[in-house]
Fold this protein.
Amino acid sequence: MTYQNLLITEEEGILIVTLNRPKALNAINDLTMQELGQFFSEDAPKRSNIKGIILTGAGDKSFVAGADIKEFLALDVEKATNKSRTGNNIFFSIERFPKPVIAAVQGFALGAGCELAMACHMRIAGEKARFGQPEVNLGIIPGYGGTQRLVQYIGKGKALELLLTADMIGAEEAYRLGLANHVVPAGEEITKAKEIINKIGKKGPIAVAKCIEAVNAYFQYDADGYEKEITEFGNAAGTVDFKEGAGAFIEKRRANFVGK
Ligand code: CO8
């Protein structure tokens, strides 16, 4: 299949998938999400010879700066719930991919971008990487697993702080908290990710797949949390504050929330 918003290359038996909308800081719009779904459920599983996958963003400024806020104003409760559910399922297909999937994060990984990085098995942060879940700035909550996976990686207290304040953290802080596996000099994110995938490529592939499956199984106990997130993401899209938050971003002004 040909892709419009994803660039896919193969190097050393590793697929490098670049989200390619640099003018929008690689924000995930509906087409990008659809293409990620196609790639992880249809195309990548057929490439049986690959050792793993690296996800990255085009340009040096941003991995992915979130879901495309410009598509938000068309959402109502039902559409938002469906969009969240579809995205969650696609991110599950990344998390459950039987070969290593590593995010090479060179810049902003915000909102859906942080969620995408967290759905990968590991994250390599360039020294300019910035992670955050800024959804509350928009009067919305994460909708692609962020409320669940952030807690898994960094614990409840810090996760709540980042979710509620919308603060961004740098690469070193992400490493200290356990969100980033490694911090590398800017421009060396993909090299480090390749090094790890090449190392894993020498191990027993069935054992590797079963490690991924078993580790994921540990977290199934909180599967209801994902369901809760989907429902509440949809409900948040029905509020006045959501329209105000997304509208304020697009109009480049501060949001005036009214709590309705
Ligand atoms: N969506 C759409 N466009 C974006 C986004 C985005 N998330 N982020 C940046 N852009 C666009 C800007 O609008 C701008 O476009 P234009 O040149 O046409 O005005 C261009 O990218 C460059 O951005 P800036 O000029 O703002 O660049 P700065 O360097 O000044 O700022 C920031 C960079 C800090 C990253 C800033 O762009 C920003 O705050 N972006 C929004 C970050 C954000 O809030 N992300 C979370 C979005 S919500 C989300 O991801 C929810 C996920 C769950 C969804 C579930 C189902 C829908």
The chain has a mean pLDDT of 95. Residues 48 and 99 are 10 Å apart (CA to CA). The first strand starts at residue 6 and ends at 11.
